[in-house]
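Propose amino acids for all 169 sites.
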C-alpha cells in the first residue's frame, strides 16, 4: 500500500518513540518530540520543494521508523512494504533516494535494486540497502545489484541521514 506523499502510513507509539530518540540524535528536545501530537505539519510550498524518498521494508515498524527519520530530515516520504510495490512506485513517481530492505518475500532487495536501476530515470539515484544481513558477501552482493551503500540494522539515525545527504551531494 502506498502512503500518501509526505505521510507515514499507520504511525504508532513505537514509531513516535523512535522519532523522539532521533530528535535526541539530531540535538533536539526529546520531551518536545514525544509530546508533539503532529510533528509533521504540511507546509504548502515548502512541502512541494522537498526531496522525495522511497522507503521499502516488509516490516511496518521499520518502514515507519525510516520514514520518520527521513521526514525529520526534510524529505517527503512514500512507504511501501514489498519489492513489487516499490517498483510500481518508482515507475510512476520520481524519487531522489531509495532506502530498501534486502530480505523481503517475493522480490528481494537485490532484485528490486536491479529492476529500479533498469528504469530510465534511476541510473544515478542513490539507493541504500538497510538490512539485518551482516555477512561480507551480503554487502558485496548489494553493491553489485545496484545499491550505493549498505547499512546493517539496528540503524543509527544520524548515520542514515548523513549517508543519504552524502550520496545526494
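Proposal:
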Amino acid at each position: 500500500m502506498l502512503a500518501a506523499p509526505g505521510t507515514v502510513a499507520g504511525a504508532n507509539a513505537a514509531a513516535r518513540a523512535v522519532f523522539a530518540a532521533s530528535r535526541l540524535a539530531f540535538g533536539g528536545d526529546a520531551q518536545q518530540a514525544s509530546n508533539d501530537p503532529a510533528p509533521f505539519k504540511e507546509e504548502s510550498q515548502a512541502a512541494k520543494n522537498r526531496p522525495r524518498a522511497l522507503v521499502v521494508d516488509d516490516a511496518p515498524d521499520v518502514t515507519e521508523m525510516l520514514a520518520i527519520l527521513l521526514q525529520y530530515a526534510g524529505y517527503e516520504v512514500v512507504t511501501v512494504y514489498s519489492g513489487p510495490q516499490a517498483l510500481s512506485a518508482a515507475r510512476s513517481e520520481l524519487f531522489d533516494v531509495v532506502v530498501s530492505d534486502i530480505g523481503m518475500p517475493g522480490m528481494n532487495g537485490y532484485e528490486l535494486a536491479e529492476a529500479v536501476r533498469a528504469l530510465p530515470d534511476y541510473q544515478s539515484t542513490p539507493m541504500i540497502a538497510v538490512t539485518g544481513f551482516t555477512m561480507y558477501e551480503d554487502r558485496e552482493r548489494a553493491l553489485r545489484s545496484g545499491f550505493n551503500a549498505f547499512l546493517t540494522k539496528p540503524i543509527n539515525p544520524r548515520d542514515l541521514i548523513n549517508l543519504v545527504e552524502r550520496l545526494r551531494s
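The beta strands are 52-56, 76-80, 97-100, 127-131, 149-152. The CA atoms of residues 67 and 77 lie 6 Å apart.
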